[in-house]
């Protein structure tokens, strides 16, 4: 699904054939599929309205109006039959049922980085709250929206919460001014508290491994700390130095090459599409000899949100690899072998890393840098893929299909779908 101004366009994912076209009341700011792909919501934040469309019954539609309370966020519940709307100033979360048309309210949600999270099986929801200048977490049962647990957290300014994939442990982390990661059980017991250091800026991002065995914590001190699920103690620190010295690490460096095409020898004038592919600058990967010095950017200390520390990290679907980005070294992706807890590969790009994401089915990483190229890494090696097309298609984000057979590449104004051929065994 994609939106153009006030229109919602639904296409077949394999053929891109147009299936449905819906017209909303105003410009669409956000869209989201239900878990079973039978419904899709369109949030019109400026009007405080959510419109819901059915794929099975195109004539059916639903409109939710928050009125004077306003609207700043909207999402589906895991069952795909309830919609959670957050009102302006985070006064409350309204839970609307599409089946019974009933409404439930959750008071005092906190405006933070990640304040509403569901377990992977869809049974429970955790909400970060702020009451009387203190932080709390409420856990709800998603089947009837009844409160299961409500407890306060030992945080100064709770920044975010995240469930482990098995749904047994909830991680909560404090503001960047206070290094603190808290781990709670489903019944609200504090299992462990982790603090790496005291005074400098603290936690920047966290990521659970798919098996729930590891919790990776990216920090402002340019390190990733890995906690284990048995004792919740640190098992290793992963450094991100500007110089790669280990001979066991493979450094792939992107290099540009200008095409050498003799236009006079062409028996026909090239078309615009062929011309753009013939004469555009191409790139490839070279393996660099260690030691390698990476491009290091010194952060500006007197500005808010300094570009420093590990702010992007993600585990592969098979738990074997961890990909990270250190904001001080914006052109590099670090790939760690979690079986050996060692740095395996560094991808040194020509542009700043905008986004990376693992294939949901196999250890294959897709990277984009704001150019018309997408980069793929797997244990077999690296490849640069030039996206064909007219004009300058700058990829700023990407998203894998759940099957791993294709991915959506997004620019500021357009998108394209990249289909990957399966290897024949």
Automatic annotation (TrEMBL):
Enumerate the InterPro entries for this protein: Centrosome-WD_assoc, WD40/YVTN_repeat-like_dom_sf, WD40_rpt
Q: Which cellular component appears as one GO term in the record?
A: microtubule organizing center
Signal peptide (UniProt feature, chain positions): none
> SUPFAM superfamilies under this entry?
Tricorn protease domain 2
The record ties this protein, via PANTHER family, to: WD REPEAT PROTEIN 8-RELATED, WD REPEAT-CONTAINING PROTEIN WRAP73
State the protein's name: WRP73 protein
**Lineage from the top down?**
Eukaryota, Metazoa, Chordata, Craniata, Vertebrata
């Amino acid at each position: 699904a994609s939106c153009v101004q006030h229109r919602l366009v639904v296409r077949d994912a394999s053929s891109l054939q147009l299936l449905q076209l819906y017209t909303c009341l105003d410009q669409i700011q956000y869209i989201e599929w239900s878990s079973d792909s039978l419904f899709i919501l369109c949030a019109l934040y400026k009007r405080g309205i959510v419109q819901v469309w059915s794929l099975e019954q195109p004539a059916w539609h639903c409109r939710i109006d928050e009125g004077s309370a306003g609207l700043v966020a909207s999402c589906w519940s895991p069952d795909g039959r309830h919609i959670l709307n957050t009102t302006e100033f985070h006064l409350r979360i309204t839970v609307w049922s599409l089946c019974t048309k009933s409404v439930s309210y959750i008071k005092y949600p906190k405006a933070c980085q990640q304040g509403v999270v569901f377990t992977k099986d869809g049974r429970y929801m955790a909400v970060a709250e702020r009451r009387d200048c203190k932080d709390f977490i409420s856990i709800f049962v998603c089947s009837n929206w009844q409160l299961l647990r409500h407890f306060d957290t030992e945080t100064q300014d709770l920044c975010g919460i995240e469930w482990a994939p098995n749904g047994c442990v909830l991680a909560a982390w404090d503001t960047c001014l206070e290094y603190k990661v808290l781990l709670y059980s489903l019944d609200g017991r504090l299992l462990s508290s982790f603090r790496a250091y005291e005074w400098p800026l603290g936690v920047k991002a966290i990521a659970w491994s798919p098996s729930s065995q590891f919790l990776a914590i990216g920090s402002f001190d340019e390190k990733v700390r890995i906690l284990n699920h048995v004792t919740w103690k640190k098992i290793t620190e992963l450094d991100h130095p500007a110089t790669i010295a280990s001979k066991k690490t493979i450094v792939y460096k992107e290099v540009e090459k200008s095409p050498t095409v003799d236009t006079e020898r062409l028996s026909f004038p090239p078309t615009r599409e062929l011309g753009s592919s013939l004469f555009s600058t191409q790139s490839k990967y070279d393996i660099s000899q260690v030691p390698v010095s990476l491009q290091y950017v010194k952060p500006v200390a007197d500005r808010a949100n300094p570009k420093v520390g590990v702010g992007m990290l993600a585990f592969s679907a098979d738990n074997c690899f961890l990909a990270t980005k250190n904001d001080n070294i914006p052109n590099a992706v670090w790939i760690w072998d979690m079986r050996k807890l060692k740095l395996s590969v560094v991808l040194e790009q020509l542009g700043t890393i905008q986004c990376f994401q693992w294939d949901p089915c196999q250890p294959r990483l897709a990277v984009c840098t704001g150019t018309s190229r997408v980069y793929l890494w797997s244990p077999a090696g690296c490849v640069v893929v030039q996206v064909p097309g007219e004009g300058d298609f700058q990829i700023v984000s990407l998203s894998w299909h759940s099957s791993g057979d294709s991915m959506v590449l997004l620019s500021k104004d357009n998108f394209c779908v990249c289909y990957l051929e399966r290897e024949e065994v």
